[in-house]
C-alpha cells in the first residue's frame, strides 16, 4: 500500500478530500493532512510519502517549493496539484517536479481525482516491480559471477594446467590474469561465528560483503583475481610484472582494504601473503598449503598482515607445567578472582606462544584443564556444567588461533567461576561467605570449627548452627569435602604417596584420612590412584 499526504491551507478542501476519496480501495494510506507546505515538510520529511496532493499558493512555503524539497530527498515521489492558478508558468514548474496531474479547483470532481490517483498507483506499482526485477537480475548476475570465480579457483587448486591454458580458461570466464608473476594472498575473516551473531548476518553474507569491499578497494590500483574459498576464507591473486616493485604497494593497499572492512562491517580480517609464483602449479602448491595447513596460522595475531611460513613445533612436554597452571587457575575460580584469572591465563598463553607447541597439543591441554575443572564442579557442588563435554570438544576444536583460544578460555572460566560462586556460597551472611572462602584458600591447613569461629569473633556453637542453617551442611563436613577433592587432584597429578597427601592436607592421622576417603569415594586412596 502506498502512502499519501494532503497539503492545502483551505481547511474545507482538506476535510472534504480526506473523507470523500476512498483511499483504502485505491490502495493508499492517507498518512497526514497539513495546512501549509512548511508544516508538511517539517512533519513528513522523516518518513516521506509516495504521493502528495497539494495546493500551490500557501504562506511561508508554497506547494511547488515543498515538492522540490521532497523530490530532492525522494526522487521517485509523485504528486497531484490542486490549484486556483491557471497560469502556464505554474504548470511548467509542475511538470519538472514529476507532477502526475494538474487539476484546477474550480473544475475539480472526485471521479477525476480518483482516476488520477489510480493512474499514479499503477505507475508506481509498475516502477516498483521493474525495480525489484532489476535487483533480482543484478543479484543473479552477481551470483553467477561469484560461481564462475569459485569454480575457477577450484580448478586452479585441484587441476594441473600449463600457464597458457590456465590463462585462457580464466579469460573464457571473464577473468583477466595474464602476468609474469602472481602474489597469492589468503584473507581470513576473524571469528566469523561471532561476527555473524553480532552483525545479525549469515556467515555467507558476511564473506560476500568482505569480498566486495576488498575487491572495490584493491582493483583501483591492482590487477587481481579474488574469490571466496569458504565462508571464512577469501583467496586473492595479485598479477604483477614487476613483483619487487609491487610488493610494497600491495602491502599498503591491503592495509587500506582491511581498514575499509573494519569501518563498514565492524569486523577484522587477517591477511596472509604466500610465496611468489610464476606458474599455475606453483600457485596451486602455495595455496593448498595455506588453505589446508591451518595449524601454521595458529600463532598469528588477529587483524594483522603476515607471511605464510611453516612452523617447526616444539617437541617439549606441554604438560610439564600443567600442575602449577591447574593449581593457580583452580584457586582463581574457587575464589572468583576475575583479574588474577585473566593474568594467569595470559601468562600461560605467552608461555605456550614462546614454546610454539603444536596447536593440537595446546587444545588437548585446554580440554584436559576444562574436564578436570568441570569434574570438580560436578562432584563438589552438584551443579549443571556450563557446556556438555561433546560440545566442549567441538567448540575448542574449531578455534583456529591461540589469541581466540585465550579469549574464549577466559570467558568460559569466568562463567565457571560464577557458577561455583552461586552454588557454593548460597548464604547471604558475610560470616559464612568468609568461612567458605578461607577454607577454599587454606585447604591444605588444619582447620577446626573452634579456630574458624575464633577468626570470625563468634561463639563456636553459634557459628556451627549458623553455618548449618545457611548451607545445610556441617562446617567440618564442608572442610573434609574440599580436602578430599584436593586429595583426588593430588592422586591424579602429583605422584605423592597417600601418607604425604594426608600430611599435606593437615590430617594428623593417616588412617582417619583413608577412612574419610573410602566413605566418600567407595575405595581407598591407593585404589583410586591405581584406577586413574
From TrEMBL:
InterPro entries: CheY-like_superfamily (IPR011006), Homeodomain-like_sf (IPR009057), HTH_AraC (IPR018060), Sig_transdc_resp-reg_receiver (IPR001789), Tscrpt_reg_AraC-type_HTH (IPR020449)
Keyword Methyltransferase among UniProt keywords: no
Domain Response regulatory: start-end pairs: 3-120
Keywords: DNA-binding, Phosphoprotein, Transcription, Transcription regulation
Protein name per its UniProtKB record: AraC family transcriptional regulator
SUPFAM superfamilies tied to this protein: CheY-like, Homeodomain-like
Domain HTH araC/xylS-type positions: 433-531
GO biological process, one term: phosphorelay signal transduction system
Residues annotated with 4-aspartylphosphate modification: 55
MF term (GO), any: DNA-binding transcription factor activity
Pfam families attached to this UniProt entry: HTH_18, Response_reg
